[in-house]
Amino acid sequence: MNHPILWAAVGTGFTFLMTALGASTVLVFQGKTSPALQRIFLGFAAGVMVAASVFSLLLPAIEEAESAGIPGWLPTAGGFGLGVLFLWGMDTLLPHLHPQAQSPEGLPSSWRRTTLMVLAVTLHNIPEGMAVGLSFALAAQHTGGGLSAAMALAVGIGLQNFPEGAAISLPLRQEGVGAGKAFLYGALSGLVEPIFGILVVLAAGRIAPFMPWLLSFAAGTMLYVVTEELIPEAHLGEHSNAGTMSVMVGFTVMMILDVALG
User: Fold this and answer.
1) Taking Cα atoms as reference points, which of 212, 207, 211 lies closest to residue 74?
2) In the chain, which ranges are continuous DSSP H helix?
3) How far apart are CA 252 and CA 257, in angstroms?
4) How many Cβ atoms from other residues are within 10 Å of residue 107's Cβ?
5) Backbone conformation region of residue 108, classed left if phi is above 0, alpha if psi is from -120 to 50, else beta
6) Are the beta carbons of 48 and 160 closer than 8 angstroms?
7) pTM to 2 decimals?
8) How many CB atoms lie within 10 A of CB 136?
9) Could you read off the pLDDT of 44-91 as tens digits, one per residue?
10) Measuring CA to CA, which residue among 197, 216, 226 is closest to residue 14?
């Protein structure tokens, strides 16, 4: 793997493209989607992120630590906890609004509802970009392999980014935003993924000893998003079976990708 930055750019570029494709559904549906479909979208994204956190981040973190002669649980648990605390802090401080919510979270702000809604999705796209970038950085450090596993993670994150893009652009359209602007905002919410993914690879030479911590950190941030936002929102309403089954499907898809390509 001679060009890890290029590979990371391709991988995170794919995840960004899938976000944009998902956002483009607003040009077709004009913001009219059923609550059941939104639950399916969110549940699928949650399942993918859970599987990616376990198979693509936590297990490699344990292997990296043990190969360095460190107890696998130490950096894995430590990095995981730091990731949870980091995103909890961001969630507490940064003003943002979830599409189904009536009032924003975070510090009081005079920002418009549309801005707050875009920030809500952008906030949890950051750890996704970090996760993909870290997987390519890890592959670059192991000349014997790892590229296929990084590509599997990029494909999995990209698949769940499609419904995420729709989940931001369609509610924006329902808020009265024009279809073109709703698409643009939804697509741009995924731009942080290639930015943070490439930044991680650029710093890989200096952060190599901390790779188990960083992989676990990314897993902690992703699972915080899943438990705080995606799964609860996937189970809104009287009948939550669709949300539950879509979580299972998303987990299975990402697990197969990681095992088959890893």
Assistant:
1) 212
2) 4-23, 26-29, 35-51, 59-67, 73-93, 113-141, 147-174, 179-188, 192-202, 204-207, 211-225, 231-234, 241-261
3) 9
4) 9
5) beta
6) yes
7) 0.83
8) 31
9) 989 999 999 999 899 999 998 998 889 989 999 999 999 999 988 888
10) 197
Contact call for residues 107 and 93 (beta carbons, < 8 A): yes
Residue type, 80: F
Place of tokens 């079976």: 241
Q: Which amino acid is at 250?
A: G
At 237, the amino acid letter reads: G
Under a CB-based contact definition with an 8 Å cutoff, are residues 256 and 162 in contact?
no
Length of the chain: 262
- Distance CA(192)–CA(207), nearest Å, equals 20
Write out the two tokens for 105: 């979270």
87's tokens: 């995103």
Smallest CA-to-CA distance from 174 within 77, 34, 70, 65 is with 34
